[in-house]
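Figure 6 in text form: structure in, sequence out.
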């Protein structure tokens, strides 16, 4: 009886460690890229602690998807590599949807005459436009306020039905989805910046008419402050609509993992 209990405990520990490693590879890779948790302003050790704790908490739920018995070493290495690729894919999709705000901010800055005003964008850890940094940080805030991070975590759990452990993911379908998400991200960014493009076009038309009517006036000196002022006022009025529109599109993009799993 004692040897049986010892053997059962040993099997439980081995299978538990195996399941934890497999879950941590997929969840940890995705969380390192996802907006909010995976942003550059979050220290790497904090991201690691979050990934470890979430893997430990979700292990009883996801352990049913783990293969049994434990495969040999070479098969195990291949499984870990596949889990890493799947986590990278899910995190990249979320990051591409987040980049729509940066695209919109760059277009708005160009149409507002603020393209040369570059600041450090903490979300992307690179230099970017002033409006892009504002929209990116506001987007991270909206993700946590609207509990979209819960949906991302739930999508990671449901991804085990869409991408089962041990199965080889379809590289063609994954590449197609990444390309579709990229095109959708640029479209969302342009749709967000559409009012500012219209305003800039009207200002440029007015500048052309004014330069024809009064050639002695330096229209660029007069138009640039007006362009910045009108764009700032427009951003003040449409910022809430911009963020609500983006939140809806972000949710549509991430809910794909839930509907496909269901």
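Output sequence:
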């Amino acid at each position: 009886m004692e040897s049986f209990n010892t053997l059962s405990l040993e099997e439980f520990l081995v299978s538990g460690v195996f399941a934890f490693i497999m879950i941590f590879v997929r969840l940890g890779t995705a969380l390192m890229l996802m907006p909010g948790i995976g942003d550059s302003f979050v220290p790497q050790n904090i991201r690691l602690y979050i990934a470890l704790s979430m893997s430990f908490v979700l292990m009883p739920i996801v352990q049913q998807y783990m293969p049994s018995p434990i495969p040999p070493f070479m098969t195990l290495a291949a499984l870990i590599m596949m889990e890493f690729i799947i986590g990278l894919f899910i995190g990249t999709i979320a990051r591409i949807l987040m980049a729509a705000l940066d695209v919109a901010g760059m277009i708005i800055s160009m149409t507002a005459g603020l393209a040369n005003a570059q600041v450090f964008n903490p979300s992307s850890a690179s230099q970017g436009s002033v409006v892009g940094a504002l929209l990116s940080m506001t987007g991270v805030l909206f993700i946590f306020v609207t509990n979209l991070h819960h949906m991302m975590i739930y999508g990671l759990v449901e991804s085990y039905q869409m991408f089962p452990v041990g199965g080889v993911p379809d590289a063609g379908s994954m590449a197609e989805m990444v390309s579709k998400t990229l095109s959708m991200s640029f479209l969302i960014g342009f749709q967000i910046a559409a009012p500012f493009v219209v305003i800039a076009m009207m200002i440029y038309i007015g500048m052309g008419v004014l330069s024809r009517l009064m050639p002695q006036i330096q229209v660029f000196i007069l138009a640039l402050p007006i362009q910045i002022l009108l764009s700032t006022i427009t951003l003040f009025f449409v910022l809430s609509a911009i963020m609500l529109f983006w939140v809806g599109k972000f949710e549509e993009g991430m809910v794909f993992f839930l509907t496909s799993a269901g």
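Caption detail: Residues 2-261 form one domain.
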